[in-house]
Amino acid sequence: MKLYYAPGACSLADHIALIESATTYELEKVDLKEKKTEHGDDYAKINPKGYVPALQLDDGEILTENIAILSFIAAHSGKLTPSDGIAHWRVLETTAFISTEVHKSFKPLFTPDSGADDQANAKKTLAKRFGYLEERIGEQGFILGESMTIADCYLFVMLKWAKEKGGMALPSRLSAYYERLAARPGVTRALNEEGLG
Ligand SMILES: N[C@@H](CCC(=O)N[C@@H](CS)C(=O)NCC(=O)O)C(=O)O
Fold it and tell me: How many helices (H) and strands (E) does the chain have?
């Protein structure tokens, strides 16, 4: 399968999930301004929504939306999500929270013409969301316990943005968690492959 990505964008979550699940993949970089892939293809024809990520499956189907792509990688590999029981639904619940309540809250920080008030409010909302996660994470391990899941792949990218793009200080357990993830060989590999090493 092939992941269409932009360096450091939310597609990094899917890239990390592909590596951590030992899935065989190819990458194709997308210029989001020009809507062109690195091979010169018109990205609007690949994903008419115009944004990354998009995952081309082995049968040629194109899957979009982080929640769907991450869930697909987990189901396809049999890794990064428990296959049944409440633990399975906790992964979906947390991944949805990260997508709809954390990822979306960054929007004013990435919109050049958003005002200072909007940006300050966005950081306030993000701090509240991170506070919720801080209360739930342990001193060691992952956001849902002892095993890495797709939610960790996604949350890593959100914490990276908060630190590097938002200039936000993370609460202590979340900060230690971020450093643990950043030190993983799979995460380092994904960052290197995106030219962010
Ligand atoms: N709902 C989408 C949002 C994806 C998204 O926000 N992609 C951003 C990068 S993180 C993007 O490609 N933005 C460029 C654009 O919209 O033109 C998902 O969860 O996959």
Answer: 9, 5
